[in-house]
Amino acid sequence: MIFLTRRATFSASHYYWNEAWSAEKNQQVFGRCANRNGHGHNYTLEVTVAGEPDAVTGFVVDLKWLKDVMEREVLAAYDHRHLNLETPEFNNANPTTENIAIAAWKRLEPAINGASDAGAGGAKLKRIRVYETPEIFAEYRGEA
Amino acid sequence: MIFLTRRATFSASHYYWNEAWSAEKNQQVFGRCANRNGHGHNYTLEVTVAGEPDAVTGFVVDLKWLKDVMEREVLAAYDHRHLNLETPEFNNANPTTENIAIAAWKRLEPAINGASDAGAGGAKLKRIRVYETPEIFAEYRGEA
Amino acid sequence: MIFLTRRATFSASHYYWNEAWSAEKNQQVFGRCANRNGHGHNYTLEVTVAGEPDAVTGFVVDLKWLKDVMEREVLAAYDHRHLNLETPEFNNANPTTENIAIAAWKRLEPAINGASDAGAGGAKLKRIRVYETPEIFAEYRGEA
Amino acid sequence: MIFLTRRATFSASHYYWNEAWSAEKNQQVFGRCANRNGHGHNYTLEVTVAGEPDAVTGFVVDLKWLKDVMEREVLAAYDHRHLNLETPEFNNANPTTENIAIAAWKRLEPAINGASDAGAGGAKLKRIRVYETPEIFAEYRGEA
Amino acid sequence: MIFLTRRATFSASHYYWNEAWSAEKNQQVFGRCANRNGHGHNYTLEVTVAGEPDAVTGFVVDLKWLKDVMEREVLAAYDHRHLNLETPEFNNANPTTENIAIAAWKRLEPAINGASDAGAGGAKLKRIRVYETPEIFAEYRGEA
Amino acid sequence: MIFLTRRATFSASHYYWNEAWSAEKNQQVFGRCANRNGHGHNYTLEVTVAGEPDAVTGFVVDLKWLKDVMEREVLAAYDHRHLNLETPEFNNANPTTENIAIAAWKRLEPAINGASDAGAGGAKLKRIRVYETPEIFAEYRGEA
Question: B–A contact (≥3 CB pairs within 8 Å)?
Fold first, then answer.
C-alpha cells in the first residue's frame, strides 16, 4: 500500500467567537483571535490517499484528478473566503485548524472514496492535514 | 557597509475595493479579492538596515531592539487585524502588497533612522520586503 | 481524534563523547562531532498532542497554553545552552537527535498529560519530533 | 523505539508511457508527462529507520553510515539519470512517485535490514518518502 | 518605485554538451551533466518588475496578468520539456542556469515592457532569477 | 552580466563577549548570547559571483569549482567548530552574523578574484550573505 499526498494552499479569513459568552469572556479565551473584523492565513491543505499503484499507469490516483477534487470540494468553498461568514460548517463552530481538518475530511471523503472516475483508482482517503502557519497544523484520519 | 535583515510574520485580513466603481467593475478588476467579507494571509515582513558593525559589539543594530521596533511600529497595528477596517493608511487605499511595503516603510523609517537608542547604532533603513505568499512579494527602498 | 502539532525552535551547542574511550576512538566513532569545543544547531521541536476538539472552542488544546508549556519545560532549558554542559540529562549521555527527542518527551509528558489547566483540554502527548537540520530528524512516540 | 529520518536529494528525468497504447491514448492519460524527450525533477528521498538508541553512542544508526547507504544504493543509480532509460526497474514500469518509493524501498531494505556494520545498529527500515515536488509525495512502509 | 516579484515553477530536462569536443572532454568538463539521456530539475522562475503603484488599484502590475505572461512566454515553452531538444535558444547553447535566466529575460522583456494591456501598468522588467535547486540560482538584470 | 549564487550550510558554536566589560555588562548587552559555554546555529552561507557566461560552456563559474572553494576557504574552518575558540578572526571580535559575513568575504575574495583556474572564469565575488537563522541574515558586498 502506498500513501500518496498532494498539497494545495488557500487564503481565508476567520475569527473565534462564542455567541453564548460576553465580549469579555470571548476576549479572555480567544485573545486577538476574537477580533470580529477577522484576520487571515495562507492555509496549506495536505490530502493523503492510500491504495495500490495501478499496474499499467503506476498511479495510486491520477494526481490531476485529485487536484480537481481538492479544488472543487474544498478550495472553491474556502479560498479567498471568510470562513465564519461564508461556509455553512463554520456558522456555528469556530474555524479552528482542528475543525477545518475535520470539515475538509467531510467534504473530501465522499468525493474520493465514492468516486467511480478512472482517475480515482480504488484509492481511499487516509489523512487530512491543515497548516494554519508553518508552525501549527492539525491532522485528522477519520477515526475516533 | 553591512546590510542586516530581520524577518517577522503577521496574519491579517484584507480586500480590494474602489468605492467609486460599481460592484461589477470591482469584481472585474479585483476578482476574488473584491469579496467584502475579506480573506487573509500570513504575511512576512523583512526589514533591512545598513551600517557599520560596532567595533566592540560587532552589531550593526541590536537585533532585539530591531525586533521590538518591528513589533511596536508594524505588528501591533497589522497582526490579527483587518487592514482595510483597522489601519488608517488603508481606509482609502487598497492594502496591496505594494502599498503595505510603502506603509511599513513610513512606519519604520522615523523609528529606525531617528532613533537615539544605544541599540540602533547609526544604522539606517534600506529596504522593506513584504511577502503576501511565498510566491508574491513587494520591495520598497524609499526611493522614487 | 485530532492530532494537533506546534513547532518551536531553539539554538544550542553540543558534542559527542564517551569518557570511557580514548580520544582516538572518540574521533573515529564521532568524527567532527567529537570536537570538545562544541558546535551547534538551530533545532526544531515539534510537539503533537491528540484529543477531541472542544465543542465550544473548537480547540484540542489552547495553542497559547501549549506554547507556554513548550517554552517552560524545554526551551528554557535548551535554548542558547550547551546541552552537554548545562542540562542534567546529557551529563552522561550524548545529546544526539534521538536522545533529545526522548528527553523532550520526558520533560513534556507530565506537563501535558497531567495538566489540569483549562487550556490543556484532555489532550495527551502523542509524538515528539526533533530536527537537528532540515535533513535529519528523530521521532519518539513514548512507545518501546 | 525511535524513528530516525535522513533526507537526500537527486535530480532525474522521466516520462510516463505505455507501449501497449497509441500515442493518443498515452497523451490522453499522461498529458504533458507523455513527452518522450523527458522532463525532470529535484526529488527528495526521505529514509526512516527505527530502533533503540545505543546506550553508549546515543545513535539508532550512525547517520554517516546511513548517508553512505543511501548514496550507494539509490543516488548512484538515480541522480543525474533518466529513470526510464537507465534504471532497470523502470524499463517496463512508469517511474511515478509511487513506484520510485517502492523501488527505493527494495534497494534499501536489504542494505539496511541485513547490514552487519557497526554503524547499522539493529535498526530496521520503516518508511520511505519520495517528494517529486514540495506539493506531491509518496510514502511506502513495506506493507501491503 | 516598488519592485514586485512573482514566482512560478517548471519541471524540465537538460544536459550539458559541446559538439566540438570529444566525449572524454565533455565528460571531463561537465561531469554527470554530460549524460545525453538528460536529467532534470524543478526550476523556480522569479520575475521582478518595477513601477509606481496605481493610485486607484494599488497595483504596480495586475498579478494575474503577470502570471499569464509568465505562463505564456516561459512556462509554455519550458515546463515538462527537454530544454536542449525542444527550445530553440538551447539548440546550440547549454541550458545552464545562467543561460536560462538570460533566455527568460529575452522572452519576457518585450511582453512586459512593450505591453499596452491595462494590467501591465507602466511597469518594467527589472530582474530575473532562476533557481535550479534551492542551493543554486542565477540572476540577470538586462545589463552588461 | 549574470549574478550566480551558491549556498552551503555549516553548523557552529559561538558566544558574544567583551573582555573589557564586567560579566554584568556583558549579560546586559548580549543577553543569552553571553553564555560562555556557547550555543550554536545551522548557518547558511550564500556566495554570489558575477561575470559573463562562457560562450562554450554557458558557465559564469564552474559550480563544482565554486563549491570546492567554499568548502576549502570557509567550511573547513567554520563547520563543526566553535567560532570564538577555533577561528583566528573571532579571537578578538564577536562572531556576529555581520562579522561572519565580512570574514567570509575576506576568506573568499582572494580565492575567487585571484583564481587562475579554468573553473573560475573571470568571475568576481560580488556578495556574501550569511543566515544565522531563517529570520536573520547579514549581507556584505565588499563596499564601505
Answer: yes
Q: How confident is the model at residue F97 (pLDDT cuts 50, 70, 90)?
A: very high
Nearest to D81 among E12, E39, E86 (CB): E39
Least CB-CB distance to C98: which of D6, D8, D59? D59
pLDDT digits (tens, 9 = 90+) for C87-113: 999 999 999 999 999 999 999 999 999
Rounded Cα distance, B130 and F139, in Å: 18
CA distances in angstroms from C93 to C83, C87, C105, C120, F40, listed in the order given: 10, 10, 16, 31, 19
Q: Do E13 and D82 touch (CB under 8 A)?
A: yes
| Cβ partners under 8 Å of residue A40, min gap 6 | A11, A12, A13, A14, B11, B12, B13, B14, B38, B39, B40, B41
The interface pTM score, or ipTM, of the predicted complex is: 0.96
Residue F68 φ then ψ, to 5°: -65, -40
Q: Which CATH number belongs to the domain containing residue D55 in this structure?
A: 3.30.479.10
Nearest-neighbour CA in chain F from E54: distance (Å): 31
Smallest Cβ–Cβ distance between D2 and the set C93, C94, C140 belongs to C140
**Predicted pLDDT at F138:** 98
Contact list, C13 vs chain F (CB under 8 Å): 13, 37-40, 82
Q: Which residues lie closer than 8 Å to B102 by C-beta, 6 or more apart?
A: B140, E2, E53
**Can you tell me the distance from the alpha carbon of D114 to that of D106, in angstroms, rounded to the nearest whole number?**
12
What's the pTM? 0.97
pLDDT of residue A118: 82
Q: Tell which phi-psi region holds residue F130, choosing left (phi > 0), alpha (psi between -120 and 50) or beta.
A: beta
Distance CA A104, CA A123 (A): 17
In this structure, the number of other CB atoms found within 10 A of the CB of residue E32 comes to: 14
DSSP string covering F28-76 = HHHGGGG-TT-EEEEEEEEEEEEEPPPTTT--SS-HHHHHHHHIIIIIH
Q: What is the mean pLDDT of residues C42-58?
A: 97
Structural domain total, chain E = 1
Which residues of A are part of the catalytic machinery?
A: 33, 80, 132
Residue with cell 520533560: C107
Contact E82, D37 (CB under 8 A): yes
pLDDT at C75: 98
> What's D74's DSSP letter?
I
* Distance to chain A for B94, nearest Cα, Å: 16
C33 catalytic residue (yes or no): yes
Q: Is D45 in a helix, a strand, or coil?
A: strand
Q: Does B2 touch chain F (CB under 8 A)?
A: yes
Is D53 in Cβ contact with C102 (below 8 Å)? yes
Indicate the pLDDT class of residue E101, thresholds 50, 70 and 90.
very high
Chain B neighbours (≥3 Cβ pairs under 8 A) are A, E, F
Residue C54 is classified by DSSP as P
Q: Which of residues 103-132 of A touch B (CB under 8 A)?
A: none
Q: Which of E143, A18, C35, B122 shows the shortest CA–CA distance to F86?
A: C35
- In terms of CA atoms, which chain D residue is nearest residue A3? D139
3-class secondary structure, D82: strand
Residues of D in contact with C20 (CB under 8 A): 56
Distance CA E84, CA E73 (A): 17
Provide the residue range defining the domain that includes A126: 2-140
Give residue-wise pLDDT tens across range A30-81.
Answer: 999 999 999 999 999 999 999 999 999 999 999 999 999 999 999 999 999 9
What's residue C118's pLDDT? 82
CB atoms D96 and A56 under 8 Å = no
Q: Which of E5, E10, E54 to mutate to test the interface with B (most CBs of B within 10 A)?
A: E5
**For residue F48, which phi and psi values (nearest 5 degrees)?**
-115, 125
Q: D130 to chain A, minimum CA–CA distance in Å?
A: 10
